[in-house]
Amino acid sequence: MVEKSDSSRCCKPNIPTGDQRSLAGTVIDMGRFNDKVALVTGAASGIGRATALRFAADGADVVGFDSNADGLDQVALAAAQSGASMTTLVGDVGIRNDCMTAIENTVLEHGRLDVLANVAGIAWAEHVSDVTEEGWNRMMGVNVSGAFWFSQAALPHLVSSHGNLVNVASNAGLMGQAYTVAYSTSKGAVINMTRALAMEYAKEPVRINAVAPGGVDSPMSRDFQMPDDLDYALMQRYIGFRPMADPTEVANVIAFVASDEASRMHGAIVTVDGGLTAG
User: Which of 135, 200, 257, 261 has a CA positioned 20 to 30 A from the CA of residue 208?
Assistant: First the structure.
């Protein structure tokens, strides 16, 4: 069931195109998404939160979707304090009806949809022998099915607005990683789902791409638990030489991919992993 959060309405100032403002330490060109509507899933924390705030700071009317109502309220407040606009919808990305209803409510309220950023995701690590049917289905339901249901519902509106769909995959979908078979499988599916959608809509006025981050300093990564008896030698090659990214660094790339500046990008998988998958 999709519900509006109590603090869903925020005021949007009249900011001329080209004005600049600082949000979370980043100087941004205001107006890049003026008069556009962007829906961000997983908006209550991590990359989703940073992406919602980035779109809002760039002038978009943002709709944040998440199951965490309190987290959404905090993001909406941060947007309002920066003079931006954001509304919120509470629901479960793993439930098809919640995904469809969120798109329907967004278009009913705002009259259009220009950007869908499928950011919501879950992750954990475990031995192959410990994977359960319930855990596998939940991982696929949130990371793969949720992204697809949102995309399926949004694409007719994105075609009408000549808009953009940006999926968030992972470097784990581009390379095998020990102890994350369910997660890696789900993100590999997101990557090829992005490519398949891009091919099916190749003749339509819509762009479909994915961003594949590496390690990100977010609540999800900070809560990420590895098996106690892991073989460190199997994991060492996935660590890389650079520190984890700040969520805003990934959000900046998502916003660029969704902007007119990336007008020739379609069907691309953009790695944002500090070179981890380069070799």
Answer: 135
